Amino acid sequence: MDTLSPSPEAPPSATIGLAPPQLDLSALPPRILRELRASHVGETVAVALYDGVAGATSDPEVLRFAASHRRVERRHLRLFEAVLPPEKRSALLAFWRWSGRVMGGLPAWLGPPYFYAVVAGVEAWVDGHYARQIALARRLAPDPDLLNVLEACRLDERLHARDAARLDPAPPWTARALARLAVFLSRVGVRAARWV
């Protein structure tokens, strides 16, 4: 059986049963703290993205996909909430939630090819983003528990990208263009989240 095949009811998750790392934040380099803040924002946006789908479409497959993947993203968010106290989080969380809802709601409203293209594109980019964070953490703060969380979240994001790409492997060029825009905005958002 292909372990990466889409499963709208319960996608596999590397974070099931994973405990948050017990980190001494005062001992972490500022660059790692900024990355943790960016990851917290990213997971906040991801949960909101899937929240935005509910009011934007009545397509049962899209709704099932969003609900099942939201559960995994919510697990990621809880891990980062356990690591990062409120005073260390972004000051723009309301904006990030709104932007996530738009990032999920607009493509879902446009139709399944748009939604799946955006999810596939953004999640593939997030996979690479986590890879860069893991490399940085190995160099600057090689805590095994932190690395386990980052690696588990990365694997989940990779699975989400593959799930979406397999559900619509040949989206129209307009959907691919919207996905590229969403990836560009994700890059900008991560840069901002590191500092604000």
Description:
- This protein has a single domain, classed as Ferritin (Up-down Bundle), CATH 1.20.1260.
- Residues 1-8 have low confidence and may be disordered.
- It is built from six helices and no strands.
- Helices cover 70% and strands 0% of the residues.
- With 196 residues, it is an all-alpha fold.
- It has helices spanning 30-51, 60-83, 93-110, 112-140, 144-167, 173-193.
- Pathway: Cofactor biosynthesis; ubiquinone biosynthesis.
- It comes from Azospirillum baldaniorum.
- It holds the Pfam family COQ7.
- This is Ubiquinone biosynthesis protein COQ7.
Strand content: under 5%
Write the element-wise H/E pattern from the N-terminal end onward.
HHHHHH
Low-confidence stretches: 1-8
Taking all Cα atoms into account, the compactness measure Rg is 16 Å
Shape: globular
**Biggest pleated sheet:** none
Q: Please write the CATH class name.
A: Mainly Alpha
Name the structural class: mainly alpha
Helical content band = over 70%
- How many strands? 0
CATH topology: Ferritin
Reported CATH architecture: Up-down Bundle
Total helix count? 6
Kindly, what is the distance between the CA atoms of the first and last residues, rounded to a whole number of angstroms?
44 Å
Mean pLDDT: 91
Return the domain count. Answer: 1
